[in-house]
Amino acid sequence: AQSVTQPDIHITVSEGASLELRCNYSYGATPYLFWYVQSPGQGLQLLLKYFSGDTLVQGIKGFEAEFKRSQSSFNLRKPSVHWSDAAEYFCAVGPSYNNNDMRFGAGTRLTVKP
Amino acid sequence: DAGVTQSPTHLIKTRGQQVTLRCSPKSGHDTVSWYQQALGQGPQFIFQYYEEEERQRGNFPDRFSGHQFPNYSSELNVNALLLGDSALYLCASSLGTPGVISNEQFFGPGTRLTVL
Question: I want to staple A92 with a disulfide (CB 3.0 to 4.6 A). Which of A34, B34, B84, B103 is the partner?
């Protein structure tokens, strides 16, 4: 069965520092991978997705993620964090044929220090 | 474009009661999905509606039911509420063939349900 693990429950970084949020997945076939962000009082917003092709994916708000099949990982990165990036981040994995079978990780809460 | 809207924002109920949550999809979207997000967890798929029919269902009991109206808006109903039903309930809308993963889902802000 597919599953997603986000090893870090909470991460704190200083504004301007780089960020990497970890995501490991378990899936039997080629996964479709997503990163979402959830700010307080807001719905989930799609940051980026990987379906196929180039394993380095660019998203919105300056985020990128790299798919590493050998490590079953899809880590999210940003070179310089802004205070407005403070939020909850969710990694998700799903099959190609059914977006309702997406499995979300438990999330990583990002705190940004001034 | 108002995006996906949900009402109410917050709701407090007691065990055994029934609750109805509402969702208006993003303009032009015809597919609505509902998710439950327990505290400290990621969202879990409840069910999806398309053409006023339930198309797919996650691992949730029959106490959870829904409806989609001709204008594509949707309701989630939960009967015989349990303490464990306390969660953030998210609605997501998309356009196109239900279930196709490339059809991006747009999420609403959610309804926070507390069961006492």
Answer: A34
